[in-house]
Amino acid sequence: MQPIELAWLIPVFPLLAALILGILGRKMKEGGGYIAIVAAAASLVLSILVVVQVLDGSFDGADGVINGVYEQSGTWISLSPTYKFEIGVYVDQLTALMLMVVSIVSTLVIIYSISYMGEEGGRKRRYYTEISLFVGVMFGLVLANNYLEMFIFWELVGLCSYLLIGFWYHKPSAASAAKKAFIVTRVGDIMFMIGIIILFTTFKTLNFRDLFSMEVSGSDLGLLTLGTFFIFGGAIGKSAQFPLHDWLPDAMEGPTTVSALIHAATMVKAGVYLVARSFPLFVQTPETLIVVAIIGGVTAFMAATMALNSPNIKRVLAYSTISQLGLMMLALGAGGYLFYNSMGSEGYTASMFHLMNHAFFKALLFLCAGSVIHAVGTEDIRLMGGLGKTMKVTSFAMLIGALSISGIPPFSGFWSKDEVLATVWSAGSLSWVFVLLYVLGIATAFMTAFYMFRLWFLTFKGEPGESSKHSHESPKSMTLPLVILSAFAAVSFLVLFIGSGFGGTVYFEEHGSLSIEGVLSGIFSDPLTYVSIIVAACGVGLAYLVYYKKRISSDVFVSSNVTRAVYSLLQKRYGFTAGYDAFAEKIVYGFSRVVDWFDLKIIDGIVNGISFTLTRTGDYIRRMQTGRAQSYATVIIAGISVILVLLYLLGGLR
Amino acid sequence: MIPIEYFLALSAILFAIGAYGALTRRNTIVVLMSIEIMLNAANINFVAFSSFFNDASGQVFALFSIAVAAAEVAVGLAILLNLLKTSDTIDLEEVNTLRW
Lengths: 654, 100
Known about the structure:
By secondary structure, chain A is mainly α.
């Protein structure tokens, strides 16, 4: 029995844990948190075994492996021999990558939760139940072998996200943030569903293997474009891309651990994963790929601008997440467009590499933020400061995360962000759109470095703020995951140099296998690399001057009318929050009222009108029933006479 | 030999008279009598066609019909007696309980 044949067990452990905790957790120590850890760790071990087998290629001999993809499935619903829905697991390098990311981050986050959620009392059982459920369905989403199964788990992770954002549902802001997250992502989910329906009606199957090996031509290509567009719509909702990005900052109302696991490292990656998973379909539809790239670039830029002046430590990280997800989308769009023009598929690899690195450093940053919030009891960075002295481990871990996300070599974020930008630049030779997007990407890189170090300096350096007086380092169970994650965030780039490199394991169609020297010289002989390094360094330097040395007063950002207007525009999130509300109130509610009027007056009017007419007519007609036998007989004879006359005239009697 | 049309005309006239009586008279006994006239109009048709086609089955039917008519009158008069007993009238205009 090879480990890969047990891949279906990976989601089962956390789901079982959720079941057990849901029923019995109340009586357990720590609300059953240890069971959640054991389940996540079991999944982690099994994931590692599976991933190792996938990456070293030794699973090729196993049953069910075709073309480097392990698939194990059974029929779930059979409508006819040709129309059927399957349920099963589908393991390739992309799945392996996601398994790795989800299992490592979830295990560490749950360990961290023991201390972070330690004071929640009776609510802990609910927390661990929901988070175990989330981990299980996230594995299910990653392992699904067809779109329908994926969609079911897609909705389930959305449900868990809703439950955990609203964990403190007694706070009105948390309750409404949970509803907002659910409803806004639902817009994307509906589009995903439309995409699935289009694919199913066009190709009669939803299995990845069948869809990806299909030759599409003629009018089907138009439908495929529509299908991929709507599938990308699902990704927009889940990965918080423009214009459905506004739920993610509000989702920070949940516990920080939830933000780290669901809203930074795993669930929001599901959208990127969906596009990457559907990549064989997307590369056949260049129109959709351009949309993907534009949405990604615009999101990356917009979200980075909003992070510049947010006073809330978690929201800065949330905007940063949106921005980085945008970069991944941008890389997928640009990379797919390059592949469509037979110019290689590095964009895919770059995006997935960034996805992995981002999962580690963003989870790290969130957990650091959680550690800080745990210590000072506020999320407002204006009330913090000087925490570096009391919280050495946290501040050091967060520094690594910040360096990594800013793209300072040699930390992991540098390598992947550089590859993303290089992909976009080389796509620039095909269309001017990508040149524009490259500029947005570079601007994003600058702003990322700036806002991350603004956050870091304001939190850990300078004079102690009013909340940081009684700060203390967090307990071991919180700092241990920080240390492990910061190790990952610092060195996860090493996968570039192991074996045939990252491009040799996670790739699309074309096997990129460069030697170490090849990778290094490829990166460092490119002038663009230095552009991104310099830009990142400038961002860090500006933050250093403004928020550490105070050489430049931060008042400079609000001194003139123009900058003040921009400042407040950013604080209002470009008016998207108000825009959503206005949309809901004016358009949706207005439309509902029209529909209500139509229902009351027209639909009900028709029904009531018919019944009124019939009762009225009945009232008149029943008077014909006089009860006199002779009048009935008269009618009968008259009728027979008429029939006879008619028969005679029409010739029926002859 | 009297042509068949004469018989048919007689039959039609008798039937029309009977129908008129059955529909217009308020006295139930008169209505019953009118129905008898209509029956006899039919019998005349039977006999006339029987002789016209030289086929005896028409006459058999006529005899049969007379027998049935006798039975029918017995039943009709029985109903009439019951009507008189229950509603104290034999006026058809008064017997209209099965109305709306």
